[in-house]
Amino acid sequence: MSAKIISGTEIASQIREELKKEVQELSSKHGIVPGLVTILVGKNPASISYVTGKQKTAHELGFYSIQDDQPEDLSESDLLTLVEKYNKDPKIHGILVQLPLPKHINEKKIINAIDPDKDVDCFHPVNVGRLMIGGSEAIFLPCTPAGIQELIVRSGFETSGAEVVVVGRSNIVGKPIAMIMLQKGKGANSTVTVVHTGTKNLDAHCKRADILIVAAGVPDLVKPDWIKPGACVIDVGVNRVGEKISEKTGKPVPILKGDVDFERAKEIAGAITPVPGGVGPMTITMLMKNTVTSAKLHVGLKTE
Ligand code: NAD
Fold this sequence. Notes:
Layout: E1 4-5, H1 8-30, E2 35-41, H2 45-60, E3 64-70, H3 76-88, E4 94-97, H4 107-113, H5 125-133, H6 143-154, E5 163-167, H7 174-182, E6 191-195, H8 202-207, E7 211-214, E8 232-235, E9 239-245, E10 252-257, H9 262-265, E11 271-272, H10 280-298
Parallel strand pairs: 1-11, 2-3, 2-4, 5-6, 5-7, 7-8, 8-11
Antiparallel strand pairs: 9-10
Helix pairs in contact: 1-10, 2-10, 6-7, 6-10
The site of nicotinamide-adenine-dinucleotide has 23 residues, from helix 10.
């Protein structure tokens, strides 16, 4: 039987509707409007497209949002001053500095300068530590891993006691999603294994997984016979494997592939995310969720 296809596009749109209502309520009952600033240094085309997407979503949800474009030759100290300005701005609850930054700027220094309580990307070491402690300490969850958890939970998969295998140990996806799934509590409480380039018998580990999360950046790494029948498979990988001409625009667009052999895996898995249309649409949505959480915390309201 063919697997259920987990649509990140649909789940992201559900969450955005919930957020829209929350934003309206925050404004009508408490007079607060969540504020997000996205800072872009330079004109990297991919970065421009990412910040445009973030700003568009923020506008749609009714946020107060600012796109702060800065020149490529902005100095590190001027960027630090800018971050400090937004740290102090009471109308701003979320600060996002779009990465990568130009080579003359130390990214670590900039991330560390963001007020951890406004670090909606959840990259600041304080927030990484809060995630490790878990529970109410973890005020923000990093966006892509948080989106992965939502996909699993909203697809109805039981996480408590489940064998979760994560392929990849990056700071952006692999390590934080492992940390999220092993926390005690709803939507987690799993037994987690992280596998990586140093792992022996990768296939044997993957075969044990009730929930298999793959974030390796290697097209078709996971073969169908690595998947336990009925498992939930979350494919985080986005790999450009060529180009095609778009029927809509007539312009060349990249051909994208995940880390899982989707066509054959869907005959074995119980549920699987497509690429594109799986994890991708969740990331911006979770950034918006963090900004709403931050706005609530800044006025002393309870969060989930
Ligand atoms: P990364 O390169 O930082 O990390 C990849 C990890 O996979 C490494 O820890 C490495 O040890 C492991 N790995 C690589 N090849 C392996 C192999 N053959 N066997 C076992 N382990 C292997 O990448 P990342 O930032 O974690 O991203 C992973 C993938 O997810 C990429 O394709 C990226 O584009 C995609 N991604 C998607 C989103 C999204 O929103 N959809 C967000 C972030 C990353």
